[in-house]
Design a protein that fits this description.
By secondary structure, the chain is α+β, with helices and mostly antiparallel strands. It folds into three domains: 67 residues, no CATH class; 42 residues, no CATH class; 100 residues, Zincin-like (2-Layer Sandwich), CATH 3.30.2010.10. 35% of the residues lie in helices and 21% in strands. It has a four-stranded mixed sheet with strand order 1-2-4-3, with helices on one face. The protein has a four-stranded antiparallel sheet with strand order 5-6-7-8, covered by helices on one side. Strands 9-11-10 form a three-stranded mixed sheet, covered by helices on one side. Strand 7 and strand 8 form a beta hairpin. Helix 4 packs across helix 5. It is globular and about 65 Å long.
Length: 243
């Protein structure tokens, strides 16, 4: 059984029709690509029971009940993880470039600015919730920095990339297409550099191996020896970014 869904291309789902008596805390979805029943827990707390192409709703319910204890343990672990606060006031702390840093006043006057670590951002004022303004700044930075780093690592590894996009993905850190397009979650700008690079390397290696086979992971290990450290960071801190 799969553990918590984290990032990447782990299948495309379509809601199944005609499911009756399904528990209110679980969403049943049928996947034409799945070969077995699977239970996953999304970062938003939604449990997903995947029904394979030849599976039945009755067997999905039975599979769910057999794994209820795992689901409750997974939910308990998820509740215990730190989460980003809903509002970001001056003096609050946010995850930025891998560190939990204070939002500090930088410049007063007609053009107020705050700083987070070494980075400075323009704001309309110092009162209230700064989160919407800062998130828009983060997104703009990500659209500049993430593609630039991807092109750099693509050149380093000799992988042919056609396009790099930065998106607001809620359940994935990155994805790629067989046509050579890599899409990255803008929240990577908030992660440590070694985690950002791991996700980019991960997607680059998918352009050589479009699977998660041992051969794929061997390729990842060749270009990113510390990938397991990055995976641990993601598992421990991804909730701070809403993933």
């Amino acid at each position: 059984m799969d553990q918590e869904t984290q990032q990447d291309l782990f299948g495309d789902f379509a809601p199944t029709a005609g499911v009756h008596k399904s528990p209110p805390d679980v969403v049943f979805q049928r996947s034409l690509r799945a070969h077995r029943y699977r239970l996953t827990l999304r970062r938003d707390g939604t449990a997903i029971a995947t029904i394979p192409a030849r599976g039945s709703e009755r067997e999905a319910l039975r599979f769910l009940e057999q794994n209820r204890e795992w689901l409750e343990r997974a939910r308990a672990r998820q509740r215990s993880r730190p989460r980003s606060p809903d509002t970001w006031p001056l003096g609050g702390h946010v995850l930025w470039r891998g560190e939990l840093l204070e939002i500090r006043k930088a410049v007063e006057g007609d053009r107020p600015q705050v700083c987070i670590g070494a980075d400075v951002f323009r704001v309309s004022g110092f009162h209230g919730d700064l989160r919407p303004t800062l998130l828009s700044h983060f997104l703009r930075r990500a659209k500049i920095e993430l593609p630039a780093r991807t092109w750099e690592l693509a050149a380093e590894t000799g992988v042919d990339v056609k396009e790099v996009t930065v998106r607001d993905q809620r359940t994935r850190w990155g994805s790629c297409s067989s046509s050579g397009t890599i899409s990255l979650n803008w929240r990577l700008i908030q992660a440590p550099a070694f985690v950002r690079d791991y996700i980019i390397y991960h997607e680059l290696m998918h352009l050589r191996e479009m699977n998660h086979s041992p051969r794929f992971w061997a390729r990842v290990g060749e270009v990113c020896p510390n990938w397991e450290d990055a995976e641990r960071w993601i598992k421990q801190n991804g909730s701070l970014l809403g993933l």
